[in-house]
Structure formats: C-alpha cells, structure tokens
Design brief:
Length: 316
C-alpha cells in the first residue's frame, strides 16, 4: 500500500508529480491567454501549473458534482418529491495575498467547460465586509478581514438561500480601489450549477450562541472546500511585492484609497506594506485563518515560487 494511503490519517497526501498523474486523460481546455487573463497581480502562474494542478482538481470536482447529484436524486426518490437541485457550492479559503482569487477564477473557468456544470458563478466574501463608515463606528478599521469585520449573519443568510434553491440571490460588492463597499451595487446569483465562494474566513466554525448552543457556519453549506496554503514568510514577501506593484498601477489612480502611497519611495513603500502585513494580515492569518486549514477537503501547499508542491485531500 502506498504511504499516502495508509489508514493512519483521514487525508491522502500527494506530491506534485503524484497528483498530476491522477488525471492523465483529462483534457485541458485553457490557453496561455486564458491563464494570463485569470492570474492575479503578482501571481506567476502559467499553463504548465494549471495543467499539473488545476486540471486534476477540475476532474475531481466534476466527479463530486456527479456523485452529489446522485445523492440528491436518492433523497428525492426517498421523499417522493421532485426537489429542485441546488448549486454545488465550493469554498476557497486562505491568507491575504496567497492567490485565492486566481484559484477561484481558474476553477470557475475550468468547471464551466465540463458538460455537467456549464453555469459557474463566483462570489468573494469581501462584499460582506461592513462599509468603512460602519467599521469606523465599531473601531474595526485596523481589523479589516478579521471575522468581526464582516456582516456574518448576512453572509450566512446568503449561502443558506443559495442552498435553499432560491432562483435569485443577491450579494453586495466590495471595491479594492476605493477600499469600501460599493453603495447600491450587487451581484445576482441565479441558481448556477456551481457557486465558488472565495474569502479569508469561509472555513470559520460556527459561533456559539448566548445559550451555549451552536449556530450554523457558512462552511456547513459547502459541498467542497479548498484551502490555499503557503509558508507565512513567503506570503508576507508576496504581499510586499504586490504592494510595490500596486503602487505604480492601482494606487496611481487618484480614486484609490491608497493613492497617497503612490508617491512613496521603495523603502517607504516596503515599510508601509510590512506594517500593514504585520499589524493586520499576519495576526488574522495566525489567529483566525490558519486554524481553519484542517477543516478543508483539499489543501494546496505552495512553495516560495508560488507553484503548488503538495496536495492533501480528505479521504471522504
Ligand atoms: N489595495 C489593492 N488595490 C487593488 N487591488 C487589490 C488591492 N489589494 C488586493 N487587491 C487585489 O484583490 C484580489 C484579492 O486579494 P487578496 O484578498 O489578497 O487575496 P488573494 O491574493 O489570495 O487572491 C487580488 O486579485 C489582488 O490583486
Ligand atoms: C478585502 C480583504 C479583507 C479580503 O477579503 P475577502 O474577499 O477574502 O473576504 C483583504 O484583501 C484586505 O484588503 N485586507 C485589509 C488589509 C490590507 O489592506 O492588506
């Protein structure tokens, strides 16, 4: 029996090569141009990485979707009712700057090419952050991304409506440029085949109620979850590098909340990025995000060069 399949852990742990071999016959429907379009700022992902890592993930998810539909059919038969199938919901979690958005966009694109799941939508949880005015009122402007900076009840209601099979569910929208919620703008989710929900805290466990019982958590509504992982010093470096790139791109826009940082020297910009990382994003990673990693069905571990080195899949 291969070491990865010994029954001592509930996970299958595979190195890159072993993972890639699992879907040798699955076609890759994307091109170099598609990957360039989908890659996040500073993420050097290329077609070879998509082929090696994401093609097998999309095949695995296609199998899970099929199996979930079979289960749904079985419950419908048992209940003697024609229950509407609900979207297959995938959560994507991980640190700020780890590359979650690239992963989520690639999944959206790859899954939409499978005949069973042509309609795939993506929602990021930043839309459920409180607006800056509310964060200021609550003294949370330096805690953006921490669980308490989100309207967690609204996010839970949103995912719960999706899994109830509502034909139309709306989510608010966040803008990285203005660093705030966009008043009046919404994403409309219309019962897709697959919904990808991406965000720092999507694997947070339920909070206990005042009575000591437990509420539901967003992740209770996931059919599958992925944690994008990397060593913290590497993610810190990626955050700082991205901040330097943003300085000459997004921050150069006078509308940008960070416009004042566009004029910083290299050293000043590095110091500012390190300060933001060390005071907000690192404590959030350590206290809230990393502790949820073991809850994920699939963990992708990246090396310093951003490529995935290991893949860990829960056995059931
Ligand atoms: N200040 C910013 N201005 C413009 N875009 C940003 C800013 N911060 C982050 N982004 C973009 O927002 C997206 C999400 O970033 P983040 O939450 O760090 O997650 P991840 O890097 O894991 O995808 C990325 O595509 C990133 O490039
Ligand atoms: C908007 C974010 C909280 C991410 O939100 P998510 O979509 O993961 O819920 C994060 O990208 C962010 O801007 N954090 C604040 C600290 C900083 O500027 O780095």
């Amino acid at each position: 029996m291969p070491a990865s399949l010994t029954p001592s852990t509930p996970y299958v742990d595979l190195d890159r090569e072993a993972w890639t071999r699992l879907s040798a016959s699955t076609p890759l429907p994307l091109t170099d141009a598609d990957v360039d379009r989908l890659a996040g700022l500073g993420d050097p992902i290329d077609l070879a990485e998509v082929d090696a890592i994401y093609r097998p993930i999309s095949r695995l998810l296609d199998l899970y979707v099929e199996a979930t539909r079979g289960l749904h059919q079985a419950s419908s038969t048992f209940l003697r009712e024609d229950i509407v199938a609900t979207p297959f919901v995938i959560g994507v979690a991980g640190s700020v700057a780890v590359g979650k958005s690239t992963t989520a966009r690639l999944l959206r694109e790859l899954l939409a090419r499978w005949p069973a799941t042509p309609r795939v939508q993506l929602v990021t949880t930043d839309g459920f952050l409180y607006p800056n005015a509310e964060l200021e009122r609550r003294g949370l402007m330096e805690r953006k991304g921490f669980p308490e900076s989100y309207d967690r009840r609204a996010l839970l209601r949103f995912v719960s409506k999706i899994k109830a099979g509502r034909p139309e569910v709306r989510a608010p929208v966040y803008d990285h440029l203005t660093y705030d919620i966009v008043p009046g703008r919404e994403i409309v989710v219309q019962r897709p085949d697959v919904l990808v929900v991406e965000g720092l805290n999507v694997l947070q466990p339920a909070r206990p109620t005042a009575e000591g019982t437990s509420n539901l958590a967003v992740s209770d509504f996931f059919d599958f979850s992925i944690y994008v992982d990397a060593r913290t010093p590497d993610v810190r470096q990626w955050y700082v590098d991205r901040f330097l790139s943003l300085r000459s791109t997004a921050f150069a826009d006078p509308e940008s909340y960070f416009h004042r940082f566009a004029a910083l020297s290299d050293d000043e910009a590095v110091a500012r990025a390190e300060h933001l990382w060390d005071t907000i994003n690192a404590p959030n990673l350590e206290q809230n995000i990393l502790p949820t990693r073991s809850r994920a069905d699939l963990v992708l571990t990246k090396g310093r060069d951003h490529s995935v080195e290991r893949v860990r899949l829960r056995k059931i």
